[in-house]
Design a protein that fits this description.
Structural class: alpha/beta
GO molecular function: spermidine synthase activity
Largest sheet: 7 strands, mixed
Catalytic activity: S-adenosyl 3-(methylsulfanyl)propylamine + putrescine = S-methyl-5'-thioadenosine + spermidine + H(+)
CATH topology of the largest domain: Growth Hormone, Chain: A
Distance between the termini: 52 Å
Order of helices and strands: HHHHHHHEEEEHEHEHHEHEHHEHEHEH
Strand order of the largest sheet: 7-6-5-8-9-11-10
Number of helices: 17
Protein name: Polyamine aminopropyltransferase
Number of strands: 11
Number of domains: 2
CATH architecture of the largest domain: Up-down Bundle
Membrane topology: Multi-pass membrane protein
Subcellular location: Cell membrane
CATH class of the largest domain: Mainly Alpha
Length: 519
Amino acid sequence: MIYRPVPARLPVPAGLGRFVVLTTVFVCAACGLVYELELVALASYLIGDSVTQASVVLSVMVFAMGMGSLLAKRLRTRAALGFAVVEALLAAVGGLSAMALYACFAWLGQARPALVGFSLAIGVLIGAEVPLLMTLIQRIRRQDAGGAVADLFAADYVGALVGGLAFPFLLLPVLGQLTGALVTGAVNAVAGGALVLWLFRGDLTRRARWLLLAANGLLLAVLAVCSALTGPFEQAARHAVYGAEVRVAVQSDVQEVVLAGGGSSGRPLALFLDGRLRVSGEDEARYHEALVHPAMAGPRRRVLVLGGGDGLAVREVLRYADVASVTVVELDDAVLRLARTDPGLLALNHDAFRDPRVRVAGADAFEWLRARRPGEAPYDVVVCDLPDPAGTAGAKLYTQEFYGLVARRLAPGGRLALHAGGDGARPRVLWTVDATVRSVGLVSRPYRVPAGAADRCARGDGWGFVLAARTPVPLRLPDDRPPLRALTPWGLREARAGAERGRITGVLPSTLMHPRYGQ
């Protein structure tokens, strides 16, 4: 049987009513896209690998939208009430999704099932909107199906554009992820409820109007309370993730930076970037000595450190008196600021950034290497102290193109030292980095240093490193090295031998167009 919409009894002229419906479509579409982007952004932060998380969210959501459209066919006979209920549910699920996802990560240690569940639920509800809105707009003024679809989708796509731009440029920087989602949910609830309770109130019984008004009022109250509690919630979640010794938590333009322990707490300092342990004060010497000192066996007057905004690699470089200049390229100003001001981090890096030999460039390492600076002298040593190549953002700093740019900056006889992954459960990462370095004409010496007890849970069984140069260089420590706490010549030989015992052959290099670190 063909369903024919009954003309609506409106409190305003049909033209104005149609405009109100299309405006509601615009607002709801903007809210829907914000929910999608919120899930992608938070999942990328909590789980990592933004490409995978975006693919999961978008594919599940698009599938669910189709299912929602089919399910909404049953609601067309009561389209106004059905739309009000769908928007209330969407406001509740979408608005609370970020907080619920963060809670699953913090207290349950697993966010992926929640991510799929919220993507599915939000997709079903967004998919149900279009058939119901099509019915409502046809009840105001009958028009051919093609014209109605064109008007509806035009408002929908423009709303999606506004929501997509508002998320990174307004909601995220001004309100943050949690409050931004809650505010979006409130806007969604008001838009959906107002449309039905005002424009289509004639379709509702008195009891239905009061129930709908009470439900939306309760929902707005819940969202407001949750918004007021985001501060204590985030603090409790951070304690659940990082322990009770959190001293500093900063959301920079690049990442979340958390410092725990250190100072007067009596516990070793721990630096977390986007939820991942980056520095452990108990074992950091093992990592930074292995990264820096093998590269210092040779000319070393000019040194370039890519990353390393915590100052710990710089500390090791500055222990050689004949180093004339150190250039540090670090993207995140928040990390640099903490390295210069936080007492716990200052105690570890020995206030390295106050040394007059150090110059800091606040820039993305890839873009900094691409920029041409006429007259700039090449570097004797380049140290890449960068995050693991696990996510999309970090993977470009471990590509053939990146190492080609680095090779151009090396002086004759210069050496490149780089961190090549820290998870022993993924040994292929080290050999992918090694193959990528060799693909630009450098000769490599890979080695793996075992992690200490404090880092073993976070980093697997050790850190991978690669020493590279245009001509073969021995993997050794400088004869004039300063006293080292963790690294010995014998330990370095074992690190080289240990890496060779686990060598994986036939590995292809990683490029910008074909990143291979997720394999």
